[in-house]
Specification:
Length: about 300
């Protein structure tokens, strides 16, 4: 049986990835930073702070994974302005710890470093769909840390022959995502309003932005396929490759609710720099793996809304 280690396996994406790998017959170990993740479909669950290099090395030796999915991160762009040192430590130093540990192993695992479309920064319409050749112009500390993660990963691949590949993942959505993210936030507000009385008003930010949304379950399927078929040293955009306006997603959510909900634009929710369009060119991923998204966005939105209906 092939062995997978998911660093950050208790997070939003990690839980789905663990379940997917288990269904495909892998032996799966997941980690959390403060406590071993609970309620994750896995074989083993461990505590690992990736800031502790020795602990990283010990875990890798103990697990001896064939495949290592590096999802552990300070994953919030907004928080990265408030906690820049933590973001740089976890996302860059943490990655160095794992690459150092891997290169010293007799049989290092294949490593997938998960990055973000944030790395591209604010792009023009002419630059869309964004190809991997596009030079990253990170616009926040989180994005800069992910660019560094990728550059260091590529150095380790070249210098030590480590089998490293990277993603730049576009907006992924689905049940269980924190309400800091726009679609999850709208679904949560809608579920809350359904429980209340009086006038129902949903507060929103910039609705005209068009983004590349993909169901998290399709995203993790892409990660597994990349692990199996991706090219060493390559960087892959992960996304549907279709731009949808946030307004359209909101209309979809509201159409699934029995309540009459009024939309109120709240300018304090606007991002200081918000590109009007952000969409991936996904040819490299599709050609390497044959991946295509399978879950319609309406299903994702319905599942996310139902998640909040149950969890408020
Ligand atoms: O702190 P925990 O136990 O919730 O674990 C989180 C983990 N993590 C760490 N693991 C080890 N040492 C650390 N110092 C450390 N700090 C955080 O990373 C959690 O399991 C995971 C992040 O999960 P989420 O914030 O839910 O991120 P999500 O959406 O699953 O994104 C996965 C990856 C990240 O690399 C993002 O930057 C990328 O996809 O978009």
């Amino acid at each position: 049986m092939k062995r997978a280690l998911i660093l950050g396996g208790g997070g939003f994406v990690g839980r789905y990835l663990a379940a997917r790998l288990r269904r495909e017959g892998w032996h799966v170990t997941v980690t959390g930073s403060r406590a071993a993740p609970e309620g994750v479909d896995c074989d083993e669950s461990a505590v690992l702070d990736i800031l502790d290099g020795e602990a990283v090395a010990a875990l890798l030796e103990r697990c001896a994974p064939d495949a290592l999915f590096h999802l552990a991160a300070q994953s919030s762009a907004a928080l990265s302005w408030k906690e820049p040192a933590l973001t740089v430590d976890v996302n860059i130093k943490g990655t160095v710890h794992l690459l150092e540990a891997a290169r010293k192993m007799a049989k290092p695992p294949r490593i997938l470093l998960v990055g973000s479309s944030e790395e591209y920064g604010s792009v023009t319409e002419a630059e869309c769909p964004i190809r991997e050749e596009q030079t990253p112009r990170p616009g926040n500390i989180y994005a800069a840390s992910k660019v560094c993660q990728e550059m260091i990963g590529s150095l380790y691949a070249r210098a030590y022959g480590l089998d490293v590949l990277c993603t730049r993942s576009f907006n992924h959505i689905g049940p269980g995502q924190a309400a800091d993210f726009v679609i999850s936030d709208f679904c949560r507000q809608t579920a809350l309003l359904e429980k209340g009385e009086g006038e129902a008003v949903i507060r929103v930010g910039n609705l005209s932005a068009r983004r590349d949304f993909t169901d998290v379950r399709d995203v993790v399927r892409a990660y597994v396929l990349l692990m199996e078929k991706g090219e060493t040293g390559a960087v892959y955009n992960v996304g549907r490759g279709e731009a949808v306006a946030v307004r359209e997603m909101l209309d979809m959510i509201l159409s699934l609710s029995p309540r009459e909900i009024r939309v109120e634009v709240d300018e304090s929710r606007f991002r200081p720099i918000d590109a009007p369009l952000n969409v991936a060119d996904t040819r490299r991923l599709r050609e390497a793996t044959g991946w295509t998204p399978e879950i319609p966005l309406r299903d994702t939105v319905r599942d996310t809304l139902n998640f909040w209906r149950k969890n408020i």
